[in-house]
Each structure stands twice: as C-alpha cells, then as structure tokens.
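HUMAN: Spend a minute on the protein record below and explain its fold to me.
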Amino acid sequence: MRLKMNFLKSILLITLVIPFTSCVHYYYAPNGHNVPLLKEKGETKIVAALSGGDEFTGFEAQFSSAVAKNIGIMANFMTGSGEENYESGRNESGKGTFFEIGTGYYKPLGQRFVFETYGGIGLGSINNEYSQGDSKVKFTRLFIQPNIGYKVRGFEVALSSRFSGLNYHSVISNNVEPYDQDDLEYIKNNKFSFLFEPALTIRGGWEEVKIQLQLVFSENLNNRNLMQETGNFNIGLYFDLPSNN
C-alpha cells in the first residue's frame, strides 16, 4: 500500500510541476511514443495529449491505422514552448514544432499481447529568443521503434524503445551572447546524435476511450553536451476506432 501511495504521489507531483516549468534554451525535446497496439486490419487509433519536460509544455497529436494484415502506418505532431520572465524585465523564450510519419509491422501474440516495430522520418525546428539575439535550428530524425504491449478489456500497458538518428541541417543565430553561442557552435560541430529513448505507456478506461499516461526518457549516446530535454511526460486521451471488417 505504501509503495502504491508513493507512486500516486509521484505522478501527481509530475502533473503539477509541468505547467510551471520555465525556459532554458534547449535544442531538442523527445516527442511521445506512438504505441497503437494494433491487432487487425481496419483499426484506427488517435491520441491527443498534453506533454512536457523540465523546460517546456506542449501538445501532441498521434494517428495510427492498420492498413493491411500486419502492416500499420502512423503520423505524429508535437508543438511546445517555454518562457522565463525575470524581475529585471528581461524575457527569454523558446518554442518548437515536430512532425513525423512512419510505417511498420504489428503481430498479435495470443489474445492479450501485441508486438510492433515501426520506422520513419520526422522534421523539426526550434526557435529561441534570448535576452540578446535569437536563433533557429532545424533537424531531421530517423527512427525505429519496437514495442510490446499487454491488452485486456479497459486496460493496456506497453514498453517501447525508440532508436533515433538526429541530424541538424540548419543552425542560424543573430546577435547571440557568447555563452549561448557556444551551445549553437557545439551543434554545428556535432551535427549528428544517436538517441536511445525508452518509454512506458499505461492506458485505462473504456473500450473506445481511455486515459493515457506515458513517460519517455531520452539519452544522447554520442553528444552528451547537447542542450536537450531528457524526458517527456504526457497525459491525454486515447481513442480506439475498431475495425469494420
């Protein structure tokens, strides 16, 4: 019972902290995992969620569909921002958007388990406004994401691992102070990062609508000095549109 209460307190604390985070200038943030747990042709899943990390809050939308036996497609969108207002009147902010598409393989394992693997590509950009100057970075990200999930009526849980290649193809800055420019120069000199991003997804509710909680971690395996978010916590609604077959 004590362990359960501590877990609930941790979830509540995370949920309360996210809306009040402030902006430090980051140049990458992981989006949520799209983990549809498809089982048969014709199924469609939609997720709408609020998400956040240490320094941003945002919104995410996800779509997935089983277009053929064992073949699924997906599309994901994320937008987020953060802002810091100082007593001196100085304001700093950051905002970004990200969109990706993918396709993959799904396979039911008996009545309750599902295995999936998806791969795809995404495009993103992040704008930062400093106390002096501004910057804009653009990047592409290739990913492969295997996951396994357990499904019973009204409840689902899944573990997923996303392996990504992050590549910056544009870094533009204007009149930025040296300590911020150093972070941008690091990106210019280390354009490619390999990311390991595991996630836990839990859903509960009704057959066609569930509340989804998801926790994502992001580990940069080769450029550990890149200024980036290392996590994403999101909470939202998961809509399950059954197959008409």
About this structure: Confidence is low (pLDDT under 50) at residues 1-5, 7-23. Residues 2-17 form the longest helix (16 residues). Residues 62 and 227 are 26 Å apart (CA to CA).
